[in-house]
Structures are given as structure tokens and as C-alpha cells.
């Protein structure tokens, strides 16, 4: 019922899209229990007939679960950490971009839009290159539909300089303040 109320408020307020995410499944699991995306699928199924805008999903910290949930609910887009090696409160995690993109292909999700975190909040990228260089490389190798720039923690301001650096190298790829 809360998801239904939120959906109505957001759509009545004029949003262009909706993201269903497990934002409060703390602490996040790197390989989440099946119950989480199953529950998310159930909620989305319950409100599906009321969705009037494109919607996406994000199973936080688990790119494969995000892609599989997108297939199950016919999501238009996904947001997530699909590439890179990070360390943070939840420990070390390595996102295998080739595995994630091959799973997307195997599920026939050629039209699924992918929004990639470049710097997940509260985690440190172990890649020492400048974030703009990582963005260029990711654009070349994985053809993301969008790049998400985060602050150092939830609720903090995203650096204008960082947004500018990434936007400068992104060409046609959308850059989102996450």
C-alpha cells in the first residue's frame, strides 16, 4: 500500500520515471538473498496496472539480481553498480561487467537501458584512475545509457566539479546526479 501511495504521488507530481529500489535493505548484500528481488517483483506486480511512466529497478549492490528482476517485471531501465572493484562498509566487491552484460543478452534484454554508478556512495573505487578516465573507458567498453555520479554518502551534495569532469567526456551519454 505504501508503494501504491508513493507511485500515485510521484506520478501526480509529474515525474518522468520511477525507480523501484531496496533502499532500506540495510546492510546491503553483494549477492542478495532471493527473497529481496522476489519481494520487489511482488510489489511491482501489485502496482503494475497503475504505472504510467517508464520504470526501472535497482537491487542495490547486486548487478545480476538487478538485471534478472528487470527481466521478470519488464522494466525499462536499471540503475546499479555493474562494473568496478570497490571497498566500503560492506567489504570488498568486484562487479564482473562481462558476466552482467552477457546475462542481459541471454535474457533478451536488448532494449533495457542501463544507468551505471561511477562512484557508489559510501564505497571507494580501487581503480586509481581519474573518474573521467573510468567514464571514458566504460563508455567505450560497455555502452551505458547513463552514468550516475554519487556523493560520498547518502544525502550529501554531489561535487559540481566531478559532474563537470564526467560530463565533459561523456559525449552522448546522459550524466545523472545520483
Major sheet, described briefly?
Answer: 6 strands, parallel
Percent of residues in helices: 25-40%
- The Rg value, from CA coordinates, equals 16 Å
Q: In what range is the share of β-strand residues?
A: 15-25%
Which shape, going by the Cα principal axes?
globular
Strand order of the largest sheet: 1-2-3-6-8-9
What letter string, H or E per element, gives the SSE order? HEHEHEEEHEEHEHE
Mean pLDDT: 95
- How many E-type strands? 9
Report the structural category. Answer: alpha/beta
Spans of at least 5 consecutive residues with low confidence = none
Explain the overall architecture:
With 178 residues, the chain is of the alpha/beta class. The protein is 38% helix and 21% strand. The chain is built from six helices and nine strands. The strands form two sheets. The chain has a six-stranded parallel β-sheet with strand order 1-2-3-6-8-9. A three-stranded antiparallel β-sheet has the order 5-4-7. Helix 2 (35-47) packs parallel to helix 3, helix 3 runs parallel beside helix 4 and helix 5 (131-142) packs parallel to helix 6. The radius of gyration is 16 Å and the shape is globular. The model has no long low-confidence stretch (mean pLDDT 95).
Please give a handful of descriptors for the protein shown.
alpha/beta; globular; 6 helices; single chain; six-stranded parallel β-sheet; three-stranded antiparallel β-sheet; 178 residues
Amino acid at each position: 500500500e505504501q508503494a501504491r501511495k508513493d507511485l500515485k504521488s510521484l506520478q501526480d507530481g509529474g515525474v518522468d520515471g520511477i525507480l523501484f529500489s531496496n533502499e532500506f535493505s540495510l546492510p546491503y548484500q553483494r549477492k542478495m538473498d532471493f527473497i529481496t528481488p522476489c519481494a520487489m517483483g511482488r510489489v511491482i506486480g501489485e502496482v503494475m496496472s497503475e504505472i504510467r511512466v517508464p520504470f526501472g529497478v535497482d537491487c542495490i549492490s547486486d548487478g545480476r539480481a538487478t538485471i534478472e528482476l528487470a527481466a521478470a517485471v519488464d522494466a525499462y531501465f536499471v540503475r546499479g553498480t555493474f562494473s568496478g572493484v570497490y571497498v566500503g562498509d560492506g567489504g570488498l566487491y568486484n562487479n564482473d561487467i562481462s558476466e552482467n552484460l552477457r546475462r542481459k543478452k541471454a535474457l533478451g534484454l536488448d532494449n533495457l537501458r542501463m544507468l551505471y554508478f561511477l562512484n557508489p556512495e559510501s564505497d571507494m573505487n580501487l581503480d586509481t584512475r581519474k573518474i573521467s578516465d573510468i567514464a571514458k573507458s566504460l563508455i567505450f567498453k560497455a555502452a551505458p545509457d547513463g552514468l550516475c555520479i554519487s556523493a560520498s554518502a547518502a544525502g550529501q551534495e554531489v561535487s559540481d566539479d566531478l559532474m563537470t569532469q564526467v560530463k565533459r567526456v561523456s559525449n552522448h551519454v546522459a550524466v545523472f546526479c545520483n
